[in-house]
Amino acid sequence: MAEPSGERAALTRAEAQQRADQIGAFARELGELEREGVLRLPPEDRARVGAYHAALAGRLAGRFDVDSTERERRMSLAMRIASLVGAVAFSAAVVMFFHRVWGLLATRSQLAVLGLAPLLLLGGVEIAARREKTRYVASILAITATAAFILDVSVVGVIFNMRPSPVAFALWAAFALAVAYAYGLRLLLAGGLAMSLLFLCMIAAKAAGIELGAAVARPEPLLPAGAAALVASTLAANRRRSGFPETWRLVGAVAVLLPLIFLSTWAGVFSYLPWPEAAVSPVYDTAGFVLGAGAIWLGIRRGWREVVQTAAGFLVLFVFAKCFDWWWAWMPRYLFFLLLGGLAVAVLVVLGRIRTRQRRV
Amino acid sequence: MRRYGPWLAAALVVLSNLAAWRVAALNRSGEPEAMLTLTERELRLPAKQAENTALTLSIEFGPPRQAGADVDAPGWFDSAKLEAVGFDCSRPLTAENAEYYRTRPPRAAYAALEYEGALWREQLAPLDPLLDSHLLPIDVDDDPAALRARHPDTRAVAVMAATVALRYVAKKGHPPFLMGRVTSVLPPEIHVPREWRGVLEGLQSEAGPGAWPPPQHEPRFRVTVSWGKRLEPWITDVQLLTPTPAR
Predict the structure, then answer these.
(1) What is the pTM (predicted TM-score) of this model?
(2) Which residues in B lie closer than 8 A to residue A111 (C-beta atoms)?
């Protein structure tokens, strides 16, 4: 029997979950309408719709392991939290176990253990992914494999007394992204993107002759990289994977907006630009307000909820940081806090309007 | 991607390990760039750690903290050397520019560190030769070859990758000046392979890590360290020292 068209469209787990939610909401609303006498479906139609929905929900649950009830949804959330805790705990166990035993091993054995650990864990990810649709276990093993690879590169550097290099971040990012795309793991995607951004900061610091440890304190490379991440969220390879566009957009929005708080407030400390702070700060002040407002506009227009929320949070922080920067030194304290209170009310009004606008979208 | 992703990740693991071995072998091939015999003063032994069985010696170099805290002149690391490693020192030394100079980030450079050289004999030997490191930075540059050409003694001077910082010094009654400081060398620690570990293990204290000041005793071991083509060090010998008999 051919699949119903609605099911064919459910390409990702998120879309399948959305369809399952729709079925539940439809059944509840139909019950309400019938109880209030607004609508009464003939019994045969009701039975046909019910049978269709039951079969569809069964197939979606079988294929995508979607949550059909609120109780199942809460259980899924608990499982996600448990898998995150498990991943962190397993990663810590791998790192600490190696630290506990590596002094007892000869150099060759150390190198063999370090190289084999991420490979074995990768094998575990593949086996878990084949056996389990929800990929909670695969996610735990994938994060642990990434931690093992980070340990591998770091400790090999220590064993051979190597100097710190940005290349390590590129390797970790590439590993995390390869595994994230292979198994559709959002947390690993976010980690891989964060390491890629750090790599870019370090490359820029190296080119400028600045010590690598100070690279994060020069966040200007994040601005174009974040914008590129926002564009990359629309690529087909990301649209095909559940939650990937949202993750790319969230990382991109944070990368573009967060540095502006530091760059506008302490341009002399955080900026690569060679011009005086008095000239650079106003540029970043303007960029903070324009890009913050622009991101909210873009987010509402495109329906990018995570971008709207990030930009709104940023604008609140940015406004308060700028108030402190501009007024704290010369304004009486009572007036400063009075102004902040007034601004908080203004922010509430603006955010309320944004929320209403979002609802309409 | 589903099909190739795991293979790509596995290839990354294998290739990065092979590359690390190759780079390490390249560093250690041929004649060492420098070979110094240092003692416990220059290679600090950490306290025992229950959760970490690895052993690394941290490279300590002078001048000691207390000696560097109060200075009247920049010494050899002056504005010219600061500019040579990339700091912009063109702004006038005025109070308005003090903040600019104080917020310059540390830079990556190369430093020449000399063991018991002329600078140490002149400045620090008379103070406390027993406890403080006898390894002193004597020059910096952004080109390690130029640094080696100026300091050709490979048995006394090691060229190392280093982090250097700029310091704006303004003391009452004196004109302000700029001076540089070597804040760390890279790598800051040297790993002790298992074959040498047994020699040093018995000397480790039970005290907590990072204890300061260090234990007040004369050096108990001597370590020969070589630096290779990539200026990365490795240990080639470890020997225990016989304690000086009490008078």
Answers:
(1) 0.85
(2) 17, 21
Question: Residue by residue, what is the 3-state secondary structure of chain B?
Answer: CCCCHHHHHHHHHHHHHHHHHHHHHHHHCCCCCEEEEEECCCEECCCCECCECCCEEEECCCCCHHHHHCCCCCCCCCHHHHHHCCCCCCCCCCHHHHHHHHCCCCEEEEEEEEECCHHHHHHCCCCCCCCCCCEEEEEEECCHHHHHHHCCCCCCEEEEEEEEEEEEECCCCCCCEEEEEEEEEECCEEECCHHHHHHHHCCCCCCCCCCCCCCCCCCCEEEEEEECCCCCEEEEEEEECCCCCCC
Chain A: residue nearest B161 by CA?
A163
pLDDT tens string B17-42: 999 999 999 999 999 999 999 999 89
Asked if B12 and A152 come within 8 Å (Cβ–Cβ), the reply is no
B:30-69 residues touching chain A, CB 8 A cutoff: 51-56
Delimit the domains of chain B by residue range. 27-240
Could you give the C-alpha distances from A302 to A12, A86, A306, A309, in angstroms and in order? 20, 36, 11, 13
Is A119 in contact with B10 (Cβ distance < 8 A)? yes
B16 → closest Cβ in A164, A171, A179: A171
Q: What ipTM was estimated for this complex? A: 0.89
